[in-house]
Amino acid sequence: NAGVTQTPKFRVLKTGQSMTLLCAQDMNHEYMYWYRQDPGMGLRLIHYSVGEGTTAKGEVPDGYNVSRLKKQNFLLGLESAAPSQTSVYFCASSKREAPSEQYFGPGTRLTVT
Amino acid sequence: AQKVTQAQTEISVVEKEDVTLDCVYETRDTTYYLFWYKQPPSGELVFLIRRNSFDEQNEISGRYSWNFQKSTSSFNFTITASQVVDSAVYFCALSEAYTGGFKTIFGAGTRLFVKA
């Protein structure tokens, strides 16, 4: 089992560029999440999904969009990157039985210049 | 409203010392869940423990132990005889129900340095 994987691991963008972060899980989990981690602020939920084809906003959704076309994949998009989006992004998944523990990916370090 | 406070930003200990990481939470719900996660230098968060609000029994797992006290809204984590491999950032998290599922918020984390 690979668990939760994220692509890419690192990325540098210029202000205004767009990109998509890919998260994949092979544990057949229903729930998936995108977080950002900034120094001194812990993890903040950006968007989440409770099943294929469904998404919902978290605590800090502005500037991001997501899609969950397949159960195993959860995509996070930045349409027009801003320096404030420089962060480490983590994807996680969990079972339907809530609130179960979350399994995290290795993270994506994004820098926007 | 939910809130998780980890007042200790960084803690430094020498190997074999015991260390306690504090977690204080706020919630209006009577049903909620508390978690601890470890983030080692490699970066990936790892689940350590889950506790529901109806189970105030303390738990011990090897060198790790957790003390849950509803009266003080605290869920503290103690590492006994710390080791260098315990060096990591530790996050406390709180989940409570809302329409459609559960919401989880994380504390800001406590960075633990264990020196040899």
Structure overview:
The complex is a heterodimer of chains A (113) and B (116). Chain A is 0% helix and 53% strand. Chain A has no helices and 11 strands. In chain A, the strands form 2 sheets. In chain A, strands 2, 4, 5, 6, 9, 10 and 11 form a 7-stranded mixed sheet that branches. Chain A has a 4-stranded antiparallel sheet with strand order 1-3-8-7, with no helix packed on it. With 116 residues, chain B is mainly β. Helices cover 0% and strands 58% of the residues of chain B. Chain B contains no helices and 12 strands. In chain B, a hairpin with a 2-residue loop joins strand 7 and strand 8.
> Structural class of the helices, strands and pairings of chain B?
mainly beta
Instruction: Please identify the oligomeric state.
Output: heterodimer
Helix content of chain B: under 10%
Largest two-chain interface: A-B, 24 and 25 residues
Total strands of chain A: 11
Range of strand content of chain B: over 45%
Query: Mean pLDDT score of chain A, rounded?
Result: 94
Q: Can you give the helix content of chain A as a percent range?
A: under 10%
**Number of separate helices of chain A:** 0
* Rg over C-alpha atoms of chain A, rounded to the nearest angstrom: 13 Å
The ordered string of helix (H) and strand (E) elements of chain A is: EEEEEEEEEEE
Distance between termini of chain B?
41 Å
Described by the principal axes of the CA atoms, the overall outline of chain A is globular
Strand content of chain A: over 45%
